[in-house]
Amino acid sequence: MMFKHFLAFVLGACCMVTACRADEVLRIRSLNSVSNPADPGQSAGSFTGMRAVAERALNTNVVFVHGIGWTQQTGSSEFGDKLVDAIARGFPDAKIRPDSTHCGTSSLDGRREFKSNKQGLRIYSAKPMALTTDDPNFSVTVGELGCLDRRVVELRNGSTITIYRFLWDDAMWNGAEWFHMGYDDPLPSKNGEKIGHVGYDDPDSLRASLNSQLKNSVVTYGLTDAALYMSPVGGMMREGVQAAVCAALTGEFDTELQKGQSATASSLCAATPTSQSPLFVVSHSLGSRIVFDTLISDLPTVLADRIEQGTSGSGIELHMFANQIPLVGVGRMGDTRSIRRIAGKQLKIVAYSEINDLLTFELVPYFEQLYYVRCYGPKAGDSTCSAGAVNEFTRRTSNFYEDQAERNKLVSDLGFDVVDVRLKYAPNQISIYSGLKDPSIAHSGYIDRDVVLGMLLCGVENGKPRASLAGCRGK
């Protein structure tokens, strides 16, 4: 993931030189609960978590969407693999079914593309599009959207948790990004020698080692993904997430896999679900914005129908780690928004944010601020605001923070509730110097923390974690 290689050589020394800080849950706030943000002692908000739901259901579906970075890199244990392992670790005597599909890992082949030993289901767009580039005579056609695989965790009571993982990084690099950024790729090495196309320059070899790592992880395999998503390709990436959710609900994953060819969102969404299961969606980094748009801002009618038909229970939890919803929202201003909602389902976003993570945003204040400006700023008195909103921006706290009815209306207007989980766990980056926390661990280490896994599995009640991971497992 992003910052994966940043100052990696100092990580081992961090906890040897100074005592490691215990993981902390600094605060939990809910958009739908009255709490004063200026009072750090006030916490509010609840969510169920995965365990209580999964142990009462025959099967529970989990859809995972990753974020920016080289997620399928050979030899790495990235967020999607860690999620499967963490879920299995969170249930006593759980086992990962060995015959599950797996998209595999990838490696860099010269300066051309990532080669992945894909064993999952390859997803293609039903409507590939040709996109112009800065060369007026060259256009890029994006067809493949990613790889979808399935991992099954078997619980001791006979229930299962089926995790569908949509991995889009290889496909997007090969289909669109390489043409723009590949010239600056580091040439791979074999037996200590650089390999690649004859005549290629290798500017990466001229950079200082840490600058090289930052350039590659932050820009080439990082910000490029975010820039791509804000282009017309973003709609195709949402199409891939739609395919993943439909595969979980309709049972068409096996049907399409047995055909031995690529699938589309249309083919995976075609069938009407014949059963209902609880649904959780887990995302990391940019993946959270893609999920947010797919299920809320740009919700297709067919996907809304399938979710209504194929999910059990009244609620759907979207667990987002290191989300970039406000950041990418700046790039999506002016886009048409869907008016369709998922009927009969209460959507709840759980946003986990390490306070020192450079690339995450708390969402309760984000949606509060949009509401402030709409109802207490220049547009005060707008019919979309509650009766309590007045044209005095300076009086906003005396109205909004203490008015439960007003908060209820905001959640109703949005169509979802938000629970922010503010965390602190990243160690010092350099020895005993506390002014810089390790950005790699802050951004990608969420699922490694028992305190986070405990909340994902056991949930939160009235602003407090229901149990530690150990306590949750013991129930």
Any descriptors?
alpha/beta, two-stranded antiparallel sheet, 475 residues, 18 strands, disordered N terminus, ten-stranded mixed β-sheet, 35% helix
Number of strands: 18
| Rg | 23 Å
Principal-axis shape: globular
Q: Which residue ranges are poorly predicted, with pLDDT under 50 across at least 5 consecutive positions?
A: 1-20
Strand content: 15-25%
How would you classify the helix and strand content by structural class? alpha/beta
Helix content: 25-40%
Mean pLDDT: 85
Give the biggest beta sheet: 10 strands, mixed
How far apart lie the N and C ends?
34 Å
Count of helix runs: 17
Q: How would you describe this protein?
A:
This protein is an alpha/beta fold. It is 35% helix and 23% strand. It has 17 helices and 18 strands. Strands 1, 2, 3, 6, 7, 8, 11, 12, 13 and 14 form a 10-stranded mixed beta sheet that branches. A two-stranded antiparallel sheet has the order 4-5. The longest helix has 21 residues, at 209-229. It is globular and about 65 Å long.
